[in-house]
Amino acid sequence: MSNPVLQLKDVSIFQGDNLVLADVNVEVNKGDFVYLIGKTGSGKSSFMKTLYGDLALTQGEGHIVDYDLRKLKEKDIPFLRRKLGVVFQDFKLLTDRTINENLLFVLKATGWKDKAKMQTRIDEVLNKVAMKTKGFKFPHELSGGEQQRVAIARALLNDPELILADEPTGNLDPQTSIEVMEVLQEINKNGNTILMATHDYALLLKYPSKTLKCDENQIYEVVQRKN
Length: 227
Ligand SMILES: Nc1ncnc2c1ncn2[C@@H]1O[C@H](COP(=O)(O)OP(=O)(O)OP(=O)(O)O)[C@@H](O)[C@H]1O
Fold this sequence. Notes:
- The protein has helices spanning 44-51, 77-83, 99-109, 115-128, 144-156, 174-189, 201-206; strands at 4-15, 18-29, 33-37, 59-64, 67-68, 84-87, 162-166, 194-197, 210-215, 218-222.
- The radius of gyration is 17 Å and the shape is globular.
- The protein is α/β, with parallel strands linked by helices.
- The model has no long low-confidence stretch (mean pLDDT 94).
- Helix 4 (115-128) packs across helix 5 and helix 5 (144-156) packs parallel to helix 6 (174-189).
- It has a single domain (4-222), classed as 3-Layer(aba) Sandwich (Rossmann fold), CATH 3.40.50.300.
- It binds adenosine-5'-triphosphate (ATP).
- Adenosine-5'-triphosphate is lined by residues 15-16, 18, 20, 38, 40-46, 214.
C-alpha cells in the first residue's frame, strides 16, 4: 500500500520569471530511497528548495509530510523543517561550537527542554552515524566525511518523516562518499525515507534505487537496466 510523504501534481517551478521545471508529477512513499539526478543547472536545487519551503510553489499541487505547499505561510516553514531533515553539500555546521553543542542548538531551537533527554537523543543520533566518541570535537577537527555524518545525525534529531539530501557527497572524495552513502543506506533500512539529489553516477550504480531525472525542464523516472 502506498503511503506518500511527498506528492507533486502538475507542478511548475520558477526562479523569478524563469520556468525551471514543468509538469512535475512525483510521488515519494514512506520508506523509499529516491535519487534525483540531472546536469548542473537542470533544476535539482530548485526542486529541493521548493520542498523545504525556500522557494514558493505557485503552480500545481504539492503535499509534503502533511503540509500543503501551495498554502505554506512564512510562519509554517520552521514547523515544516522540523518534519524534514535537510542535508546540504557544504554540511552547514556551526563552526564556533562543538558537535555536541551544534546538536544541542538544534534541539533547543526546536523546543526541547529536558537536558538529560537532549543528551540521550544526541548520543543516539551520533551513534547511528558512528560518531558517538567525537561529540567534544569542533567541526574543523573532523574530516569532510565525518562532518557530513554529523550533518546527517543533526537531520535525524527530530525523527524526520523525510530526509532531503542535496548533493550530500558533492564535496567528498569517492571513498568518503561511499562511507556517507553507507550511513544513508543504513538509516533508510531502519525506516527513514530519503530523497537525495546527486550527480555522482558511481553511487547510483553501486546502490541502485528509484531514480528521477531532471532534464530539459522535465522530471521523469529513469528505469535502471539490470545486467
Ligand atoms: N536565485 C536564482 N535566481 C534566478 N535564477 C536562478 C536562481 N537559482 C537558480 N537559478 C536558475 O535556475 C536554473 C536551475 O538551477 P538549480 O540551481 O536548481 O540547478 P541544479 O540542477 O541544482 O544545478 P547545480 O547542480 O549546479 O546546483 C538554472 O538555470 C539557474 O541559473
